């Protein structure tokens, strides 16, 4: 990588770090590009060099949530793909563990779930805050398709509805805990939470739960 390109990448990351700090402190809606520029120590022009608008900055921050989750899904699928129930269980466990222990991921998730107090009509991308990446959604739904073929998916569920419930349950847990991480130890309750989730989605006697 050339020095010029490396400098540009450092500036971009500095802007994103500043946006993250500012969004956490005062919320997405009340943050302007001027606020981000001041926190980053750059001009607004420097921000526009890297990002079209505030929604683009926000979307780049979302990647700080999506990329680690994509990596969890891919790694788990590669290792446990032959046992889809076990694979889904580990994805859930590692996702919650990431929220507990990965501070950058925790900060980004807090912004996504608790600092978007108003969704601007002129920034439709912001309304997609709780969506997983398309890649993760496809992989998780494929795992539920495999459990269905193996007779392990609970009756009345389709792979699509199971994927939605899987995602919604985990989002709900994260939303609740991130309101006040001191209220209880998510790390200590993680296994029990995931057990509750999986019992609702898979047949209890499944050998690949």
UniProtKB/TrEMBL annotation:
Q: Name one GO molecular function term.
A: transcription cis-regulatory region binding
Which UniProt keywords are listed? DNA-binding, Repressor, Transcription, Transcription regulation
Ranges in a coiled coil = none
Q: Which domain of life is it from?
A: Bacteria
Q: Which residues form the HTH tetR-type domain?
A: 9-69
Q: Which residues bind DNA?
A: 32-51
* Gene3D superfamilies in the record: Tetracycline Repressor, domain 2
| Entry keyword Transcription regulation | yes
- Spell out the PANTHER family in the cross-references: HTH-TYPE TRANSCRIPTIONAL REGULATOR ACRR (PTHR30055:SF240), HTH-TYPE TRANSCRIPTIONAL REGULATOR RUTR (PTHR30055)
Provide the protein name. TetR family transcriptional regulator
Organism (species): Vreelandella maris
